[in-house]
Amino acid sequence: MFSSFLARASRLWANTIGVSTSPRWPIGTSVTGGGLMAAAVRQGTDSIGFVELSDAAAAKIPYAYLRNPAGQAVAPSSASVEAAASAASFPSDLTRLTFSLVNENAPGAYPLAAPTYVVVPEHPQNPAVATSLKAWLTWCLQPAQQSEASRLTYAPLPTALNALALAAVERISG
User: Which helix (H) or strand (E) holds 15?
Assistant: First the structure.
């Protein structure tokens, strides 16, 4: 996702490094994993890394305001991710509920926002697992739980996405 953002921001980046889950960085050291990346950035001088906001907050590392397509310099926050998600279009195919929030053109939207996915089998082999999983995911998608998301530095799901997620959960059977 970070390389996707950089490729959209810079033609030079797009033509030389490109978009990849494992880009070939021209200099520096590559680190995998949010906690390790946060530690590497914290220990390094003039370091740049990409981690979840919760990892940056826990490691007490500074983060960047980024200019979004609306022309605003926006800090990463639950509210700015929520603004990006609220402007997004979501697929109607419940079996392919994937999308990007990078560079959503909305006021207050952080341009380097990403969804977090829960990947589960539609038909778990164990019926008890299916029942428990369905109940837990349904609970997670309720308004009371969604309202707690920002306390954990996540954004609650927009109404349209929440409805799609609940419909996808309803398909779980064992």
Answer: helix 11-16
Is 53 a residue whose pLDDT tops 90?
A: no
* Residue pair 97/90 in contact by the 8 Å Cβ criterion: yes
End-to-end alpha-carbon separation of the chain, Å? 34
Contacts of 155 (CB under 8 A, 6+ apart): 78, 79, 81, 82, 85, 113, 149
- Give Cα 124 distance to the centre of its chain: 26
Residue 112, Cβ neighbours under 10 Å: how many? 24
Which DSSP category does 119 fall into? -
pLDDT value, residue 125: 94
Torsions phi, psi of 38, nearest 5? -60, -45
